[in-house]
């Protein structure tokens, strides 16, 4: 594509563009993983690709750094695949259509995958360079991070020598990440019963225009979830209209705040105007409630071909109950760190299948007992509705180490380069650091990254100038790690 080649930055942007050319959504990282393996083989570097498609590449230290402590660098190569409703992009076969908008790199109508393709680009540029001073490197490219950290969970650390670990999966320049929360996916499977549709008009009700965002790092912004709003609308509609529910769907990823949702309902022809009135009232109510956070909430309805079957009244009511009662948003705040979310839950996916309704919840927490309490609440709510609830992809948090030598060095270099103290922060989102800390006793960890915005949404953008600044800073840090 050659959209970014003129930006320079020691091939960082060249490799980022190459990554954007290779489809690499979660569970579909093989092509990108194979490319990274070929990259390593062409340069004669030690390389190991496991059955999961994780890749480890090792490179010796440069002159004078041969015996320096090994640095492990890590980022994930899968991306959240989301697109605008009017975008026809195929994430399995087509490259991202990237473009430059001022200081930002964006993808047309889709997510960009800077989370975490930029980490892979940084590592590839460093592994390719011959004139950048650095200690021995062990670069890990993991998979399936966005859907439960499956790659890091299964990664075998048997041949790792490093005790210093740099993760590059954070999204705000000037922040040195020193701690993150753990998490668990709680999957609700509600069996459905159907019956023949009575005479009536079939309508598809849409909720659109929400900002969405990352269900961890953006949850404190208290943005609306389309799935939650849909549940509220259906509850209000049931108070006014005797309707049948055909299906309810919303969201594509459990770790993204749902931006769009849809319910297909059947009503008596004489009640269509009442439905329109409820939609108008609900939209006005939601806009008022979220006027400081969501400016474009839109609710519409259109007539659909007649549905052959509808859900039974009992199943309909269970769906409404779950959408109204499942926990969403911030649940508790950390009492030791101002402004840090302690626990949260996100109703990321709502999907009507042939024999069940599927609701996927991402539960996060830095306190294990409170995270467990939210998960048990979901289990209880599910059981009351006759649903099966399964907890999967449980991953640990990463505890702050105030005596970190790596943190001391990173802070020192930041002050020297930028003349100000960096912010040492924790994040209410899952990073793979906790999993690697369990695998390697005594591991000293830190995480950083350039500015990127609206990740996990089609509005995602990566700052060009910030990417360059972090790269120049990273080279100074590497030179210090002798």
Please characterize this protein's 3D structure.
This protein is α+β, with helices and mostly antiparallel strands. It has eleven helices and 23 strands. It has helices at 12-21, 30-42, 114-128, 150-154, 226-240, 272-289, 313-325, 368-384, 405-418, 433-439, 464-480; strands spanning 46-49, 55-59, 71-76, 98-101, 104-107, 137-142, 164-167, 175-180, 182-191, 194-196, 201-208, 244-250, 261-267, 298-303, 309-311, 329-333, 341-352, 356-365, 388-395, 423-427, 444-447, 452-453, 461-463. The strands form six sheets. The protein has a six-stranded mixed sheet with strand order 1-2-6-3-7-21, covered by helices on one side. Strands 16-17-18-9-19 form a five-stranded antiparallel sheet. Helix 1 crosses helix 3 (114-128) and helix 9 crosses helix 11. The two termini are 38 Å apart.
Write a concise keyword list for the protein shown above.
482 residues, 6-stranded mixed sheet, 5-stranded antiparallel sheet
- Main sheet overview: 6 strands, mixed
Strand order, main sheet: write it out: 1-2-6-3-7-21
* Helix/strand structural class: alpha+beta
Mean pLDDT: 96
Q: What proportion strand?
A: 25-35%
- Terminal-residue CA separation: 38 Å
- Radius of gyration from CA coordinates: 24 Å
């Amino acid at each position: 594509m050659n959209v970014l080649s003129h930006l320079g930055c020691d091939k960082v942007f060249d490799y980022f563009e190459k990554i954007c050319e290779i489809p690499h959504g979660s569970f579909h990282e093989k092509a990108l993983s194979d490319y990274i393996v070929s990259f390593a083989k062409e340069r004669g570097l030690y390389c190991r690709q496991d059955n999961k498609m994780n890749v480890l590449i090792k490179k010796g230290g440069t002159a004078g750094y041969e015996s320096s402590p090994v640095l492990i660098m890590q980022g994930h190569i899968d991306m959240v695949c989301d697109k605008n409703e009017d975008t026809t992009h195929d994430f399995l076969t087509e490259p991202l259509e990237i473009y430059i908008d001022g200081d930002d790199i964006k993808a047309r109508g889709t997510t960009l995958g800077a989370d975490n393709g930029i980490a892979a680009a940084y590592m590839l540029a460093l592994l390719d360079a011959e004139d950048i001073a650095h200690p021995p490197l062990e670069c890990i490219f993991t998979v399936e991070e966005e859907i439960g950290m499956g790659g890091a969970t299964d990664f075998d650390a048997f041949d790792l020598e490093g005790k210093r670990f740099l993760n590059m999966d954070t999204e705000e320049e000037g922040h040195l990440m020193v701690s993150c929360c753990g998490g668990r996916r709680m999957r609700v499977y509600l069996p459905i019963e159907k019956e023949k549709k009575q005479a009536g008009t079939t309508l598809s009700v849409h909720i659109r225009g929400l900002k969405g965002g990352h269900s961890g790092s953006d949850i404190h912004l208290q943005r609306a979830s389309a799935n939650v709003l849909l549940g509220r609308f259906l509850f209000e509609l049931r108070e006014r209209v005797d309707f049948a529910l055909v299906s309810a769907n919303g969201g594509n990823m459990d770790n993204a705040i749902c931006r769009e949702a849809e319910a297909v309902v059947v009503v008596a022809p004489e009640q269509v105007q009442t439905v329109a009135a409820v939609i108008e009232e609900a939209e006005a109510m939601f806009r008022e409630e979220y006027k400081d956070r969501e400016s474009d909430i839109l609710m519409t309805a259109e007539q659909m071909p007649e549905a052959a079957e509808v859900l039974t009244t009992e199943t309909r009511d269970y769906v409404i109950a779950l959408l109204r009662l499942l926990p969403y948003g911030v649940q508790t705040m950390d009492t030791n760190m101002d402004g840090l979310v302690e626990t949260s839950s996100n109703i990321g996916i709502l999907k009507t299948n042939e024999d069940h309704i599927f609701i996927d919840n991402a539960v996060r927490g830095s306190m294990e007992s409170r995270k467990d309490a939210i998960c048990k609440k979901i289990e209880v709510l599910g059981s009351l509705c006759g649903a099966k609830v399964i907890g999967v992809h449980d991953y640990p948090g990463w505890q702050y180490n105030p005596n970190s030598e790596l943190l001391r060095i990173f802070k020192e270099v930041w002050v020297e380069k930028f003349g100000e103290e960096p912010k040492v922060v924790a994040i209410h989102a899952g990073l793979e650091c906790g999993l690697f800390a369990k695998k390697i006793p005594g591991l000293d960890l830190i995480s950083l990254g350039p500015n990127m915005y609206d990740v996990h949404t089609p509005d995602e953008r990566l700052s060009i100038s910030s990417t360059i600044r972090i790269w120049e800073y990273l080279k100074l840090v590497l030179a210090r790690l002798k």
